[in-house]
Amino acid sequence: MPDDLIIETHGLTKEFSGFTAVNNVDLRIRRGSIHALIGPNGAGKTTCFNLITKFLAPSAGTIHYNGRDITRLKPAGVARLGLVRSFQISATFPHLTVIENVRVALQRPLGTSFHFWKPESSLAVLDDQAMRVLAEVGLGDYAGLLAVELPYGRKRALEIATTLALEPEMLLLDEPMAGMGREDIGRISGLIRKISRNRTVLMVEHNMSVVADLSDRITVLARGEVLAEGSYAEVSRNSQVIDAYIGTGLDADEAEAQHG
Description:
This protein is of the alpha/beta class. It has ten helices and eleven strands. The chain has two domains: 1-82 and 174-180 and 202-260, Rossmann fold (3-Layer(aba) Sandwich), CATH 3.40.50.300; 88-167, no CATH class. Helix 3 crosses helix 4 (127-136) and helix 5 (152-164) packs parallel to helix 6.
C-alpha cells in the first residue's frame, strides 16, 4: 500500500440475500484529502461506509487502513485505530449539555464511558479538553446549553465535535448537509474544510455545490459499482455519470440548478 494512501479497498463486495449492494469496489483514499462518494439513491454509498467502518462485514474483498488489513476487525477496533464516522441522523444525547456530550466522547479512550455513577466533579478534568474541541467547531459559547435546544446546524456541529473528541486520523461523514438551509450549509462546509487541515475526510454528500467546493477527488457509484473517479471537473463532464446520476442530456450546471 503506497504511503500516500490511508484507505485502500480491493474487490469490496456486499450481498444481501442474493442482492448485491456493493460490487467489486476498489477505493484509494489519499492521506490528507477530502474525498467524496456520490451517486443516486441505492448506489451503495452508505453500504460502503458501513463496510469500511465495519458496521457490516464484506461478502468479499479486503480493506486496508494505513497499510493494515482491517477487513475482519470490529467497529470499536477500527475506531481505536483512528477511523471514526458520523451518521445521517444526529447521534448526540439531547438532554445532556453540549459540553457533557463531548465529555462522554472523551471518556471512551479512558474506558470510563459508562461510569455514570461517578460524581460529576470527577469528570471536571476533561472540561478544558472538551472546551478546546468545542472551540474548534465554533460551539464554545454553547457549552452549557442542552443539545436538544441547539439549532439543527449547530447539532450537526456538535456531532462532529463528538467524533473529533475521539482524535480521529480519518473522519467519515455521512450526508453532513442533510436537511440544512443555506446558512448552515456554509457554516458546516467551512467547518469541514477547517478540520480537514490535519485529517483525511471521506464524505457521502448529495449537494453537488458542496462536493464541488470541498472535494479533492470524487468517486461516483451506480448500482453498487464504481462508475467514474476524478476531480469534480472530470466526473461532472463524464457522459456515463450524467446518464446514470443526473439524467440523459443534462450537464452538471443544469443538474445543480434542478437538484439544488
